[in-house]
Design goal:
It is found in: Periplasm. The chain is of the alpha+beta class. Helices cover 35% and strands 20% of the residues.
Length: 713
Amino acid sequence: MINYEMPCRKHNGICFLVFLISTVCGWGLGIAQSIDGGSGTAEATAAAGDSISWQEMTSVEDLHALYPGRILLVFDHLDLEREGLKKVKHAYESGNIPKAAKELLAYYESSTAKERMSVEAAPVSDRTVPAADSIVNDIITIQGVSDRVPRSEEGHLEWGHTGPADDMEYAWLHNRHSTVGTLLEAWQDSGNPRYARYIDHYIKDWIISSWPYPEVKSSTAMWRGLEVTGRVRNWMPAFFNLIDTGYLSPATQLLILSSLPEHAHYLRNFHAQGNWLTMEISGLATIAAYWPEFGKSSDWLAYSIDTMVASMKEQVYPDGVQAELTSHYHQVALRNFSQFMEICESANISLPDFYLETLVDMWHYLAATMRPDGHGLLNNDSDLDDNRELIKEAASRYRRGDWEYIASNGQMGTRPEGGPSFLFPWAGHLVSRDGYETGAHWSFFDMGPWGIGHQHNDKLHLSIAAFGRDMLVDAGRFAYRGRVAERFRDYAKSSASHNLVLIDGKGQGAGPERATEPIANDKVKIAGDFDYASASFGRFPELDGKAEHRRSLFYVRGAFWVVADQITTDRPRTIETLWHWHPEISVREKEQGVVSSDHPRGNLQIIPVGKTNGNIELIKGRDEPEVQGWYSREYNNYEPGTATVYRSRVESDDTFIWLLYPSKEADPELETEILSRDREGIEISVSVPGRGSWEIVVPFANSGDARLEKIVP
């Protein structure tokens, strides 16, 4: 089935000669069938090789006996005119396939790619690494979930195994072979040959099990694009680090070389778009750059560059934010774009200035949105990723003292100009701070579009951290498939798992996927002593009639947040305002509708300003009648977390005002008063004994009217 490139490219006359000579010499049983399109199957072995199993196959001769067509496939894709392959070409043209294969492997042992990739391993020892021991015993851990992968009667791992939760994500991620990276690192650190030898067995198992290559776009466990590129990335360092150690057998080395053109064909012809494209095309570029001996490598690399530059223009907004608007996948895209740059650097190929400048903007977004504890945004389908070390590495590479300052909590580097709050106007993301210390105030306000992928119905969501702790949170992503997803996926994507309002029990629908322009200046303002932002959402598809929610945020730097929720409606409604607490936060209800955390080293109070009618419900870990009060820090992990639900009845348009007050002590005394309210905005006062009073104007639409006056005691 390997007819996707010019068969026997450049060697048409030689192929028949090779077949004739190798058949006479006893080397070539079954080659003709493979040349005509058969890539071999796990069951199709030559009669001469019946005496050994696939597990016992280690030498060039073993491979040639069991699967002779695979060796010829390697040569079919090589550019034998390339410098350094003279001995390979001579043996090949003489019809001595095993000798040509050995000369090729000797070439790779002294290649420049090997020099670049080799990492010195520890001296040989029997030291053990638990994570690697589990893999050797067929216990594979994917996204925190471990399971023993079954084997077939022939001894092959069941590569389609979906894990204990029957989650296809388990099978897909297993087929990316991050396990190879774990084993390689374990061998390098411990010097234990067991781990290196198992890499040989593991990759050999997969390649033989993968036949025949389907040559079509696929969503199977083995041949989906993300898995194809994942394997390339994990095989590459294993190939070059183990090729001269005796641990990666010549048979497996040749199997890898025979499988790489299949991987390249898939990535070139069946790659996806969007964020997946960045991952898949970087895999194609990896093959092209580290195995330039393939005849198509220069074409693959040129295609990769054109495609990645075009993809970056399509995926990344002018403010540097990837258009899925999901911090976790922004990091994935950035990692792929960065790795592609490194691949091009290794091949001495220059990328356009636009590409390099956009990388800097993408890193700046990760740095500027980072919480004081080093974690990134938990928004849309994100995990709570620790970005601190990534930002430090980027700060060193790009010589950005401001990123180093943020990542070190102000202990190193130079204080950023224009901070401490940052607006990303195309993404519609506002991060407010009062500084960069470990205990600084931090908040994230989402006023942007829905995103082009991994979306949640969460516009106007607000997250808050203070005193080194997450206080008000996004509930997270839980899982995409399997039992966890069946229980929580709808909840994760819904407005009910975010700090928003439900109208008559209904949440938001999908919003516009993309921004066509940045947030207007009259909707946001960052001043020296406060931040202001306002946005609205009116798509509630399950709601009878019409309603709109406008949220205006006012952060008094170093003091507190004021939230004004304006509800516009064509009929009476029940309004539920949701505030989700981090699971580590102990929550209690106080008088006059106040709900507070209870901790000796930092707290937050939710204080309704003005209205105290309605009722309050604290929900934690509930499944019925609907899911509520759960939190997922990362994929497949979840735990109960308190959700505070304020429920009120409105007869017509109305506004709810909230003071979110952080304090080191548990119950500070303070007073609030509404000075005025109308359709244009509100004015309130907040008084705290010993700190003074603030008079705050929160407009609903015009940032120019936002005003703060502090009266010092």
